[in-house]
Design brief:
The chain is α/β, with parallel strands linked by helices. Helices cover 34% and strands 28% of the residues. Bound molecules: flavin-adenine dinucleotide.
Length: 372
Amino acid sequence: MRVLVIGGGMAGLSATISLRSAGIEVDVIERDPAWGVYGVGIIQPANALRALDVLGLAQACVEAGQPIRGDRTYLGDGTTQIAAHEWPTLVAGLPPGNGITRPKLHEILTTATNNSGANVRTGVTATEIRDIGDQVEVACSDGTQATYDVVVGADGLYSQTRAQLFGSELKPAFSGQVCWRYNLPRIEGLEEILVFLGPNGTLGFTPIGRDLMYAFLIETPMPGQAEAIEREGAAAIMRQRLEPFAGPILELRELVSDDDAVVLRPIDTILVPEPWYRGRVVLLGDAAHGTSPHAGQGAAQALDDGIVLAQELARGVPVPDALQAFVDRRFERCRLVVEKSLAIGRWEQDHTLPIDPDATRMEIAMSAAAPI
Ligand SMILES: Cc1cc2nc3c(=O)[nH]c(=O)nc-3n(C[C@H](O)[C@H](O)[C@H](O)COP(=O)(O)OP(=O)(O)OC[C@H]3O[C@@H](n4cnc5c(N)ncnc54)[C@H](O)[C@@H]3O)c2cc1C
């Protein structure tokens, strides 16, 4: 079997490493010539560590990151605690969660991919994908052409593969919120996620290294405020957006000073209706189920996708059956993550809605922790 993976992010690399472990030939094409990722960090809940353990990479992530043992939620005044949870461990010998910088995680995944024997080409995308029944013909932007048994569209939230195969009207929708992120020195001893519920959004701190944490602020943008800000002055705007919050941010806010280190993204989401494949081309990760970050589950689900797809393709059943089995195992869980995460975001925009954000987050975590 020969597989083409389009997109060298978390979903694509999880699939690649898993497929290579099963002895399947894999080509990867990645659009970014530098094959890089932006700064800041990522929360790896217990199921993300479980997936990384299957890939043989959990220990490396834990060594490069910082354990997370639970979470604690306060009101925006910084002192009124309203919830606290200790996270259960899913894999013996590993912490219940981990925080890591995105560049470090990317380095671990790309090194494993390169060592797996996959053939990776960067600065390349697919220009034409033609399903011819029992094979897929693909033309690439570097002028090459090849045929594959399966093509994996792991090219992220704004997937070109999805647009090509499922139609361009199926695209992410704006959730009404944006997310600001910035790396700060870790609060001494911090081994949990701290969350502060303000009038206009949620501020949080996630440890991602021995000396590092990242601050995230998920909020409804001011009317007229651009979702993609100009670099110049970005830090000043972020500092201003942090003003309604008390607690640890009072001492940290002035450190938000480097315009280039501010990461601001609109929170766009999508849930592609099942099935996530057309013929022999299948969508994975954010391309199929891009979630809002309220439960820190997007990357974790992307990793699980790659593992499950490889398991099904390695069974040796006809490819259409394998792809259907993949969707059968993944759709409901990803639907729950996307829809419940969005519900938390809706509550953050309107506190009168009958949603218990804490219970919803727990429901997502419990569902995600079930065997894949
Ligand atoms: C604000 C925010 C915070 C988040 N925090 C967390 C968190 O704490 N924990 C968590 O688990 N998840 C989090 N996520 C979600 C997580 O980042 C995504 O779910 C995850 O990156 C999805 O992986 P992916 O491989 O599907 O897509 P991506 O990571 O987007 O990777 C797609 C890859 O495909 C490449 N590509 C794109 N188009 C093409 C093309 N046409 N041809 C070839 N290559 C292409 C891209 O360059 C990229 O390398 C967060 C998301 C946001 C927006």
